[in-house]
């Protein structure tokens, strides 16, 4: 039987017509926009993705419909008007042509980015009382884990998904971030989303964006290296042109050697910042850049162990990290709260001057409080001498949450423990003044997860005093009102005080009555 034209050609023609009409349609949403997502309340919410160039994209959510046209590269972005916190799951619909994406189980609340190295990456399963903590998982907490990647150039996408906190999955959440979120939920009764972008063992340098390095003159050497690797700069352009010349020479030489049956030489190196994940900007490019400009309340940062031999240089890098992220996010000076490194390893109590181990790194972290809208959770009392990953992450999360409750959510509480403010020499004594005294200074001790216990008859420890000879000795320290008076019969004309300025001041015991430890400090710069 003779086939008609539709039988003979119709299906293939229909297939190719359909491909021409529909096959070119494209619609993607940014990696963070998955089921179970938490969107930030109270501020404009950017949402973005990719479609066919020039295609119209509509986003409908919470009574709002935003329509935009994808640019020549196919990228589109809309900005939802500020949303109100909600415990009721909702759906969002994104359309372009015949393509439709529906995102389900969306909550509105608070969103925090959790970043740093292994102590931020450490999971609920690795902390104290893990089994009990998992059983009490709060479904108002959602977690997004950014996969470990590094790249020489900024990337657009990550592959991850939001998970609802349940006993079955919460064990894989960042413990510090989870306990922070749990405290916020308990106080505000609104959902909290935590974006976990952390990588164990990493230094601070690969987390800093190029723009951050440009802000800090003290990091000029690293910035020049970054600029020289980018073809948009003059130095970078010259390097790439040189690379192309070398590559052309390699091609010609290799062709001749292949004709002779000989092995060609190694390819010339591309002039980008190459190497592992520890190189400047490489983790930022792959694990932070794809998240921008997602609406967040702020950042929680727990890092420093890998830079533990530094001092002031770490402060400059903190300035670059914070200033850089705020600049590229274009969301203003969002809150940036970080963890001061805990007590670790062993310190000789006879070494009154201290300065060993992480002492100067902690000092740099203390100095970083001079950066606007920052806060520091002091953990000098909850570390473990033999474990760089102390298991009490509950108190770490609570102390970070206290900063947020005081500074972001307007709770009338003292945000942290006593912080050195100034000192005055009074004859053969030095009087120390503090910020964040709260309800008053006390001698106390911390044992595991139990609340801080005041020791009314206890003596303050780990205070040292020095005269003009710069020779420190252990000193007596007494609480007088909201100040500490430090003295020693061995120093008749004191000029400087140090407190807990050592890698592990085990048993250091200055707190405020709010149960928060004082940060280590020194009044000198010797």
Features:
526 residues, eleven-stranded mixed beta sheet, disordered N terminus
What does this structure look like?
It is a single chain. With 526 residues, the chain is an alpha+beta fold. Among the domains are: 106-218 and 277-339, Rossmann fold (3-Layer(aba) Sandwich); 230-259; 419-522, no CATH class. Helices cover 25% and strands 26% of the residues. The protein has helices at residues 5-23, 118-121, 130-135, 175-188, 210-215, 220-228, 234-259, 282-288, 312-329, 359-367, 394-407; strands at 27-29, 38-40, 45-51, 56-61, 64-69, 75-80, 86-96, 99-116, 141-145, 162-164, 192-198, 298-302, 335-339, 374-377, 419-426, 429-435, 441-445, 453-454, 463-466, 472-474, 476-480, 483-487, 496-499, 510-512, 521-522. The strands form five sheets. Strands 2, 4, 5, 7, 8, 9, 10, 11, 12, 13 and 14 form an eleven-stranded mixed β-sheet that branches.
Number of helices: 11
Principal-axis shape: globular
First-to-last CA distance: 101 Å
Strand content: 25-35%
Q: In short, what is this structure?
A:
The chain is of the alpha+beta class.
